[in-house]
Records
---
Amino acid sequence: MSIQFNGVKLYTIAQALELDPKAHARILNLGGDWLILLGKKMAFTDDADLVGILYEAGQTGPVAFNSKTAAADYLDPHAQCFASVSC
């Protein structure tokens, strides 16, 4: 059973790194919070391209960062494991 938030699957960083094919990580500001979305393509053109959102185990919603830099710093050690990382 997968964990979802508003109908979108949530993945821990470990789960995201195991996706095959590799996901594209996109840092976006949604409602004032910076979230890391995972997609099938570098450019998310519609909902079908969205794979999921990063979250931390034990939480019920996505990881919300207070800045784009904080989100990028979180992804930096794992960047090579994604197809691409963009913001």
---
Amino acid sequence: MNWQKKKEFLKGQLEMLAFFREQTTRERHLENLIDKNIEMIKKCSYFMERNAESLEKLQHSIETVVGEIEEL
């Protein structure tokens, strides 16, 4: 293999390594974004459950008050 072919080969290898490095960095960023989204979904789910419980308690209180008013 002459010097020019070696140079072209090595240049191609470096370009490929740079491409894979960029891909790895992008994948890492996407994985971090996905992890953050999963955590946010967990938090939203928790607060939605808490709100549902509060709404159920409020509904029960309203039904109790309405029942008491109807008895009057």
---
Amino acid sequence: MIAPRLPEPSPAVACSNCAACCCQLEVMLIGDAGVPARFTDENDWGGAVMRRLDDGWCAALDRDTMRCTIYELRPDICRAFEMGDRDCLEQRTLYFTRPAGACAG
């Protein structure tokens, strides 16, 4: 059995303990003209998405602080994904229980 990479998540998610788990999800860009082009890509079906790095993390994520570098320009779907809501907690659970190196998506 592989141990979790970080301490188990608590129900009270805050900026200080957020692991940016959602930043490994594919983010579709629909009408998000404000996202800088260097952070966008095209998926296999021709749709506009946030660019992800080879390890699966969003290219706009600052890996030192685990915070979004384009927070004020972030896509609508990122704005709708609220910290601590059901979807957030579900992604945190998956992130913390998935073996290290396993694909997020």
